[in-house]
Amino acid sequence: MNEKDWDRVATTFEEEIFNVPENDTKGLITDAIRRLSAPGATATDLGCGVGRTLPLLAEHFAKVYAVDVSSQCLAVAAESCTQYDNITYVHADLSKDRNGYPATDVVLCINTLLNASIAVRGPLFDRTCRSVKRGGHLVLVVPALGSALLTTYRRLQWNLRDGMPPAEAQQEAAQNDAGIEHGIVHIDGVPTKHYMREELEASLAERGFRVEAIEKLEYGWDTEFEAPPRWMKEPWPWDWFVTAQRVR
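The chain above was modelled as a monomer; its predicted structure follows.
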C-alpha cells in the first residue's frame, strides 16, 4: 500500500487493519516497552498508523516520535492522543528518507517491513535500524513464514476432515504464491513479505544489532479463518516478536 492507500483507510483503520497490540494476549509488546523504558529516554513508533501504541509509549518515555507515511492516519492518531504533550507527529516515507526525527533509545516497528519488493524493503529495513541510537533497542513485529505454511497445512487438514479427496484438498489449500522461496505470501491478494527466524537473525546482525530475543506472538485461528472448527487448536499462528540492541 502506498501513501494514498493508507490515507483512504485512515477513518476505517480499526475495521480493516489487524490490531496486533490488541491480540497480543501474552503482553509481549507492553512488557518490552516497560522493560526498556528509562527516565529521560526517547522512543519512536515507526509506522504508527492511527496511534494504537502511542499511549503506551507516551506513558513510559519522555519524548515520543510518531512516524507514518499517511498524513491522514497521523491526524487520526493526534486526535486520539490529545492528552499527551510529549508526542511529535512526523509525516515521512521511510522507504525514501528519515527526515524530521532523530535516532531514539527505543524504536517500535509493528508490521511495517512488509513490502514484497526488496528494492523498497531493503532501504526501509536499513532506515528503521538507523533510527535506533547506538546502545538502544529495536522492538520489531513481522509476519512469520512458518506461520503462513502452518495455516496452509491447517486448511489441508480441514479439507481432509470434511471428506475432500486428497489431491483436491491439497490443491484447494495451496498458497500458489510466486516468490514464496523469498518469503512472499499473498494476503488478501497483496504480496506480503514473511520472515524466517534465521533470516531475521542474519539481517539484524548485518545491520549492527545483537538479537536479544525472538518469540512467537501467537493469535487464535479466527485470525486466519472465518469460523475455524473447534478441533483446530495448538500450535497457533504467529508473528515474530523481536527485541534487538544496536551495538554498532
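The chain has one domain: 3-144+193-246.
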